[in-house]
Amino acid sequence: MPTRIHPILGAFAILVFFFLLAPLVIIVGAALSDTTFLTFPPQGLTLRWFANIFQIEAFRRTAITSLQVALLGTGLSLLIGIPAAYALNRYRVELPRWLSTLFVLPILVPEIVFGFALMKSITIGLGLPVFISLVVGHALLILPYSVRVVGASLASFDFSIEEAARSLGCPPLKTFMTVVLPNIRAGVIAAFILAFITSINDVSVSVFLTGPGISTLPIQILAHMEQFFDPTIASVSVLLMLVTVGVMAIVEATLGLTFLTK
Amino acid sequence: MPATIAVILLLVIPVLLTIATTFGEAGGPFSTYAAFFKSGFRMAVLYRTLQIALITTAIALVVGFITAYVIAQMPGRLKSIMIIAAVFPLLTGVVVRSFAWLIILGKNGIVNNVLMSVGLIGEPLSMLYTQGSVIVAMVYLFVPLMILTLVGVLEGIPRDLIEAAASLGARPVPTFLQVILPLATPGLIVGAVLVFTGSFTSYATPQLLGGEKQMMMGTFLYQRAMVTFDWVGASTIAAIMVVITIGVVLIMSRMARRLNPMAV
Amino acid sequence: MTVSLTIENLSAHYGTTQVLKDLSISVAAGELVSLLGSSGCGKTTTLRLVAGFLQPTSGRIRLGDRDLTTLPAHARDIGLVFQNYALFPHLTVLDNVAFGLKQRGIAKPDRAKRAMAMLERVGLAPLADRLPAALSGGQKQRVALARALVIEPPLLMFDEPLSNLDAKLRIDMRVEIRQLQRANGTTSLYVTHDQEEAFSISDRVAIMNAGRILQLDTPEVLYQKPASAFVARFVGFENLIRMKVVERQAAIVTAEAAGGTRLHLSQDLFGPIKDDFILACRADGLAVRRDGEGIPALLGTRTYLGRAYQYKCETAAGEITANGPLSDPLDAGARAVLTPLPEQCCILDPED
Question: Long-range contacts: C298-303, Cβ < 8 Å, 24+?
Fold first, then answer.
């Protein structure tokens, strides 16, 4: 039973949604324009700018790097993040308080500062290969999301069912895999999606960690824009938006889109 | 826990080391900071960054709150659609979303095209690389985050309380001012902190829409580190950013706790 | 100023489902009427319609000579006590109570004085500066009550106000609510699913099911003379035995239940009996004897109730629950005869 909305407020909200969505529509339009400069509304329709993406080797290479970094980084962050979230919730009373504060730190430290510090210490200082630095940097960037999202679903997990499994003779690791993990499935999926999206779109950390020959797609887009200002960028952007659509479709298929409203 | 070691080794120590380098200068431990605060150009960057972040936060608060309020009142189905419409831009990358404003505000952009075809202007306006263009793009970037934060907060206000207010004779406006707004205040503070720190430390948006003319702390840090290779200068900027970010978070979270009506 | 509440032919829908069907009820000035029923019976819907949180599809709601039907909730002037208290968490106890006075434009010193006086009446004056989070459940409910009463509403409504309290407190609070309501003489509508609560607090009780009122009567009448099998079951008649008259001799009727069990019932004692009827008996309304006239039964589990033994009995007419005297305990497996006692039984029309 919703209360009535004042028409002025309703109109304002409609304007806000126009403001939020119109720029994305404009990108799609600009990507289809048959001009060598970016414009909207499109003048003539063509798909040649999409074809052009695949002609540019740098886009193809960085897109693959971005995917690799996002998958490895997300996997790594979940691999260390899930046990951390589990321990923080399971042994909340026994663990010192600074531990949970520690996992808030990556949010408090500006990404751009983190990127700079990481470059100085591991890429330059330790001389780690660029690709490894990127994966490590991304894993750490998204670790707090993994810990918090998984932690949120663990917070409502009833640890007594774990004890029940143990009392029925199930060994600890098997208990975790067969009893705990299935019950926090939604949290793990949500963490994966959030982490993946954050990683694939990241600029602030990557901008310091990319090096000669190895770059990520958003960084490559920025570099490309400094030299060319043609609809190719718009069409790459459209492809990135399709990734977002794909992610939302995965959310819908696994958790239901209403999950996002919670 | 491996995660603890990872955070300490790869985040805490590198950031502390970075900050530590700023105290080892020949001119004394605080010489780089003295230089920073004496330099008109560097202070202008800091002021500009604070100003843009504050304006962005203020606009996002108002726009986000009104929109979230409308969304929270919508019936289930429509509400889900509106939330998804707000999530979509949020999941789209910052580069893509900033880039959209290049098309809109550029020389051949929509705004110029429309204004010229109406005959309001004869020459295209140069709207890019102004403070306004950065703020518009920042607001665009952070309004969805504000909306989602505040929808959660407003949904958390029990309907009972609104009904109780009505049963006691409160009209809609007093109900809003005396019940909804005070209960939403902690959420508004959380939203404000997220938007302020996000815009204060942003890199891609000022890079694309502000350029050299509208340098902000993020772009300034990058420029010092990767263009002029002044690492101590870059570290100084980094330290100032960390202090301001953590300071704002601490002050605001203390304020939120004091204003939290549920606290005893 | 006490006025009556009149609800005429009220219907309401959620989407396409009708949740209230042509409901009419009137609450006399100063009277407390309860709406009693299980969840989904329409009792809360009725209250929300009167409060103005829902709009009826048809019908009228009048309070004295005011027609409330289309008034917005904030203009109805009804004191409402919520199930979850609905105290404003950001306001002190005093400010919560003064909230309604503030909306009525009453100056600050005056409203503080009146709110304080009301807090004194509910015994919470020392807690005036606390926030609701620092109160116990019973204290919260008292604040909610004070907040609803201080605006001196012509109508008070209660939505399951005691369901979140523990058993002991529930009984104390209902006495307190009844005393305050009596003292002010405020016309009241009280919604509950708890029969004992409704019977103990109300002048009259409306038993509701599927969006209708089945019976509106004093607790005494409802308890002793339910008008239908549904109400009988609701007020605790454990045994409903369907019977058909096979023979009439003057006032004595011979009736037969399923399985061929026959009973002789006197219309002088049971009242008029139709050819097809239901004999409704409480467990106390069936005497358990070793022999005599009545329903032959095979005794099952015996439970000690403190004032009697309760037996689950197998009979040809189905399972029957009956209470026997403490002086003569019978064992499971014993044979006995169950005799209906007229003052604890009633004759009802069959359902459908």
Answer: C298/C333, C298/C334, C298/C335, C299/C330, C299/C331, C299/C332, C299/C333, C299/C334, C299/C335, C299/C336, C300/C332, C301/C332, C302/C329, C302/C330, C302/C331, C302/C332
Residues of C in contact with B164 (CB under 8 A): 80, 82, 86-88, 147
CA C350 to chain centre: 23
Domains and CATH numbers, chain B: 31-259 (1.10.3720.10)
Rounded to an integer, the average pLDDT of C289-293 is 87
Listed by start position, the domains of chain C span 5-232, 237-348
Task: Identify which of B246, B235, B237, B241 has the alpha carbon closest to the alpha carbon of residue B19.
Answer: B235
Q: How far is CA A11 from the centre of its chain?
A: 32
Nearest CA to A111 among A143, A150, A77, A149? A143
User: Which residue do the tokens 């499935």 mark?
Assistant: A185
Contacts by residues B207-210 (CB-CB < 8 Å, ≥ 24 positions apart): B207/A222, B208/A222, B208/A225, B208/B95, B208/B98, B208/B99, B208/B101, B208/B102, B208/B137, B209/B98, B209/B101, B209/B102, B209/B105, B209/B128, B209/B129, B209/B133, B209/B134, B209/B137, B210/B129, B210/B131, B210/B133, B210/B134
Number of B–C residue contacts, CB under 8 Å = 75
Helix A231-254 and helix B94-105, axial crossing angle in degrees, nearest 10: 140
Least confident of A31-35, A254-258, C143-147, C196-200: A254-258
Chain B neighbors of C151, CB-CB under 8 A? 168-169
Contact between C340 and C238 under an 8 Å Cβ cutoff? The reply is: no
Neighbours of chain B (3+ CB pairs under 8 A): A, C
For range B50-66, the mean pLDDT: 97
Cross-strand partners of C322: C311
Beta pairing, strands C32-36 & C58-63 = unpaired
Residues in B 224-263 with any Cβ partner in C closer than 8 A: 261-263
pLDDT band of residue A261 (cuts 50, 70, 90) is low
Interface with chain A: mutation pick from B46, B70, B94, highest number of A CBs within 10 Å? B70
In three-state secondary structure terms, B33 is helix
**Cβ contact (<8 Å) for B91 and A248?**
yes
B103 close contact with C: CB closer than 8 A: no
Helix A185-201 vs helix A57-90: crossing angle, to nearest 10: 140
CB contact under 8 A, C90 and B183: yes
Class of domain C5-232: alpha beta
Chain B segment 121-140 residues within 8 A of A by beta carbon are 140
What is the dihedral angle through the alpha carbons of A245, A250, A256, A259, rounded to the nearest 10 degrees? -80
Subunits next to C (3 or more Cβ pairs <8 Å) are B
Whether the CB-CB separation of C128 and C93 falls below 8 Å is answered with yes
The pair of three-digit structure tokens given for residue A245, joined into one six-digit string = 């659509």
Q: Which of B83, B88, B103, B113 to mutate to test the interface with A (most CBs of A within 10 A)?
A: B103
pLDDT digit string, tens, across residues B170-201: 998 999 999 999 999 988 999 999 999 999 99
Per-residue pLDDT band for A2 (boundaries 50, 70, 90) equals very low
Domains and CATH numbers, chain A: 57-261 (1.10.3720.10)
- B80 Cα distance to chain centroid: 25
* Separation in Å, CA of B38 to nearest CA in chain A: 22
- Is the torsion defined by CA of B208, B209, B212, B217 positive or negative? negative
pLDDT per residue as tens digits for the range C200-214:
999 999 999 999 999
Minimal C-alpha gap between B263 and chain A (Å): 20
Domain C237-348 indexed as CATH 2.40.50.140: yes
ipTM above 0.85, yes or no: yes
B108 touches C: beta carbon within 8 Å: no
